[in-house]
Amino acid sequence: MEEAFEPQIIAFCCKYCAYAAADLAGSMRLNYPTNIKILQVPCTGRVDIIHLLRAIEDGADGVYVAGCLEGDCHFVCGNLKTRRKVEYVKKTLSELGIEPERVEMYNLSSAMGPRFAEIANEFGKRIKDLGPSPLRIKQAA
């Protein structure tokens, strides 16, 4: 059964950098997992703790936020605030007995299409190695 597991992954990507990098990766025909659902946000600063937790609660096996390079946020410090939110969510998941590695934050520029594909592949492998989310397993039962 473990071979059949295909993780459900949500990626919150900022419009100006990470989403543009994903678009570039697609234009370059770079391969990354099709089970990563990309949600475009105006800035990673708009991603709140509740969005990350709700994604996990609703059955996502992994969630990551991808924004501008640190110091280059189009909204000055949105990505820095979100990094703290992601760390808080990781701590919360750990306290709940859920692997904190299921949530991550990445920074990249719009010209980093190959890096976007690399992140997607690495995160997809990480989540596949962790297996299904404990919450997803409970929902199925």
Q: How is this structure best summarized?
A:
This protein is an alpha/beta fold and 141 residues long. Helix content is 44%, strand content 16%.
Number of H/I helices: 5
Low-confidence stretches: none
Quickly count the domains.
1
What percent strand?
15-25%
- Biggest sheet statistics: 4 strands, parallel
Which structural category fits the helices and strands?
alpha/beta
Q: What is the H/E order?
A: EHEHEHEHH
The CATH class is Alpha Beta
Q: Write down the Rg.
A: 15 Å
CATH topology: Rossmann fold
Pfam family, one: FlpD
Enzyme class: oxidoreductase
EC number: 1.12.99.-
Protein name: F420-non-reducing hydrogenase iron-sulfur subunit D
Describe this structure in words.
- The chain is an alpha/beta fold and 141 residues long.
- It contains 5 helices and 4 strands; from the N terminus they run βαβαβαβαα.
- It has one domain: Lumazine/riboflavin synthase (Rossmann fold, 3-Layer(aba) Sandwich), CATH 3.40.50.960.
- 44% of the residues lie in helices and 16% in strands.
- The protein has a 4-stranded parallel beta sheet with strand order 2-1-3-4, with helices on both faces.
- α1 crosses α4.
- The longest helix has 18 residues.
